[in-house]
Amino acid sequence: MLSEAQIFELLQGSAMDQKSSLIDRSNFDDAALIPIDEVRSLAISTDFIRGTRFNMFEAGHMSFTDLAYYLVASNVSDIEAMGAKPAGFLDVFRYPQGTDESVQVEFLKALKAASRYYGTTLIGGDTGTFVEFVMTGTAFGFVETAKALRRCNARPGDKLCFSGNLGLSRAAQVYFLSDHAGTSLADDGEALLLNAWRRPSPPLGLGPALVASELRVAAQDASDGFSTTVRSICEASTVGAVIDGSKLPIHEVVAEVARHVGRNVFDLALSTSPDFGLLFSAAPDEANTIVAKDPSIHIVGDFCDGTEISFVLGDEEGPLPGDHWSQDHFSV
């Protein structure tokens, strides 16, 4: 099965036909940027979710309302990660013949509410019957082209910053989709884990705020996991990175789950957890200013010369924990 990177290479074409390719490596980002005039670009992104094939849904931990919120969040997060302000959202909602009308009404009403919740507007889409449930979204917004938060903007010496918490989504899967549910966490801990799937929380407004600050920032949303996102920015920017494990914002409930199931907390938190936080670079003084204004943002490492990515914890140094995103990344 082709990976996302392999599909991109296929679409990009070989060096022989590079001039005829519609896709430029420099434009491989969270969203496509399409110039609309000399100053602004349209940022547009589309995302499909497994819908009723989500294992959290199949296990009874998500409703159709929750799926609608997840769909909008996953798309809006990509637009915000480019520094664009979301302007509209379109959806495709297909369902099997005979699906109860209450399901249709629940999902479509939730889409409208979720669009408002995540700062955009549901403007249209497509709905009707199919052999199974299909849930796809497309979000768009506008950004000044020169100020867009590109993955390729990181420089050696920049600080590596992250918004939010790491590992809650993955910890929820490990906890609820195994034999450990209800055996170790208090109710508020379980609610926190479930909410990571039911109401994802990308840092709304952060991307556009970084654009408004006129800083040269590299950014990417961490919906494929922290480890994969670090690697992606480093590859696009041709830099290395040093991650300080002691600075990572891993919630205590994630550490509790890791201890209970006998997993390394960093492997659990940094792998394929779709946390929707924003990973971005900033010069040291600028990073300190940003963090001072927003305690939900953490400086977790440094970008450096070379291409090596290392993980430091106390006196120990090694490779960055966590697996790459894969087609089976939602398995336990």
Give the SSE map.
Elements: H1 4-12, E1 32-35, E2 40-49, H2 55-58, H3 64-81, E3 85-96, H4 101-117, E4 122-130, E5 134-144, E6 159-163, H5 168-176, H6 187-198, H7 206-212, E7 219-221, H8 226-237, E8 240-244, H9 252-261, H10 265-270, E9 278-282, H11 284-293, E10 297-304, E11 309-313, E12 316-319
Parallel strand pairs: 3-4, 8-11
Antiparallel strand pairs: 1-2, 2-5, 3-5, 6-9, 6-10, 7-9, 8-10, 11-12
Helix pairs in contact: 3-4, 5-6, 5-9
Level of helix content? Answer: 25-40%
Structural class: alpha+beta
CATH fold assignment of the largest domain? Phosphoribosyl-aminoimidazole Synthetase, Chain A, domain 2
Broad shape: globular
Q: Look at the structure and give the CATH class of the largest domain.
A: Alpha Beta
- Strand order across the largest sheet: 7-9-6-10-8-11-12
Low-confidence segments: 18-26, 326-332
Instruction: Quote the distance from N terminus to C terminus.
Output: 20 Å
The total beta strand count reads 12
Strand content: 15-25%
Mind summarizing the main beta sheet? 7 strands, mixed
How many distinct domains? 2
How would you name the CATH homologous superfamily of the largest domain?
Answer: PurM-like C-terminal domain
Tally of separate helices: 11
User: SSE order in H/E notation?
Assistant: HEEHHEHEEEHHHEHEHHEHEEE
The radius of gyration computed from the alpha-carbon positions, rounded to a whole number of angstroms, is 20 Å
Quote the average pLDDT: 89
The CATH architecture designation of the largest domain is: Alpha-Beta Complex
